[in-house]
Design a protein that fits this description.
The complex is a heterodimer of chains A (about 190) and B (about 270). Chain A is α/β, with parallel strands linked by helices and about 190 residues long. Helices cover about 35% and strands about 25% of the residues of chain A. In chain A, helix 1 packs parallel to helix 6. The two termini of chain A are about 20 Å apart. The N terminus of chain A is likely disordered. Chain B is mainly alpha-helical and about 270 residues long. Chain B is built from 18 helices and no strands. In chain B, helix 2 packs parallel to helix 9, helix 7 crosses helix 8 and helix 13 runs antiparallel to helix 14. Chain B starts with about 20 loop residues before the first helix and ends with a helix. The chains are: A alpha/beta (about 190), B mainly alpha (about 270). At the A-B interface, strand 2 of A face helix 5, helix 12 and helix 16 of B. Chain B: GO terms for molecular function: GTPase activator activity; small GTPase binding. Chain B: This is Growth hormone-regulated TBC protein 1.
Chain lengths: ~190, ~270
Amino acid sequence: MASETTEAGKMANRAVAAQRPNGSTQGKICQFKLVLLGESAVGKSSLVLRFVKGQFHEYQESTIGAAFLTQTICLDDTTVKFEIWDTAGQERYHSLAPMYYRGAQAAIVVYDITNQDTFGRAKTWVKELQRQASPTIVIALAGNKQDLANKRMVEFEEAQTYADENGLLFMETSAKTAMNVNDIFLAIEV
Amino acid sequence: MAKSTYSKVDEYGFQRPENFNYEIKGIPSDRRTAVWMHVSGAEVLKHSSSFSYSQLKNKINNQDIIETIQIDLPRTFPDNIYFTSHDQLPTMLYNVLAVFGHQNKEVGYCQGLNYIAGLLLLATKDEEASFWLLKTLVEKTLPQYYIVTMTGLLTDLDVLDELVQKYEPVIYRHIHNIGMPWAMGTTKWFICLFSEVLPTETVFRIWDCLFYEGSKIIFRVAIALIRLHKQEILQTSELGELITCFRDMRNHETVINCHQFMRVSLIV
């Protein structure tokens, strides 16, 4: 399984970069619009904070409405500017979500591996995206809080099977240890 | 604006001008609880209510509401020393939110209320007063903001749209050309009543007016913020830049200087 440290994350970046087709994209700048969806307190903001600033806060403030962050990464000769919408998780804010996923090229749907309900909610998000978002949207499923695997309630295989059946990218992640965080953001961009 | 009910003589013995507006200068912090309770109607609500706060506190039993609130407790002002270094404040916050959520089933617990109740507690240091003030805000001042459909919020976002069109047509056209829904830039302004959006001292000054004259101060502040950033807004050319401009409005010099900011807001 994947890297646990930021250094390993950087290596993963290089690995992703190596997979990129070269030639036509040289010196190109692309914008990449991405949205994070999922139940409250599964770690959406923490994943973004880890990816954008390399930081982790044990107690991340609850997001109201949505937060907007950017991150620019160079892959080969291409500069990719991630425009990330980090949405509020509480069901009540659901009606505001379409304005964030409309026009998004990718979505990361997050659940908490220690909480079965959040996996159910992730499936609901996936269904909604498949029906309502752009038909070309790339969806990744992130089983976050992998550092708490000893309290696991959602089996890796169960999520992997679901992801395979629905054509989703899938990784278990940990915003706390940085495991697979860069990898999942970069994997959906490739 | 409604007529002031305060003394015509200020604390230094000078006659106040005829059109003096107490809120412009802000309420002294040691008087805030009493003044907010009085001018908002929370005091009357408390005394006319058929149940007491402590009675309500004994009825907390809905596990869903309890769990949802507990998740947000350590995530409310995690950098504030009063919330991190004292056990008392998170417990008080829990009580206020849980009691509120149980006595108002339509709202229950809505994320955002944690920041409002948190700031109420920091301002008043009084759990019971914070509850009655929260109840007054949510049920009287901002009806239907926090219910499941958020109808009140959506309506007020439309009102803001019309106000900007009327008072700042150039900014209005620019924002519409870029295609930013108001909900993207300003949901938090309305839901958190500027807590977690503007500097705390400025937020309390806004709340002084909010408790006194009701929700129109939110629109005044919103228009003032947008006006103060006219150049910056018009210089943006795409959605990301525009959103970033809205997000960074808290850092404007005038916004930090709460006296000046309130003057600007009350001209609107």
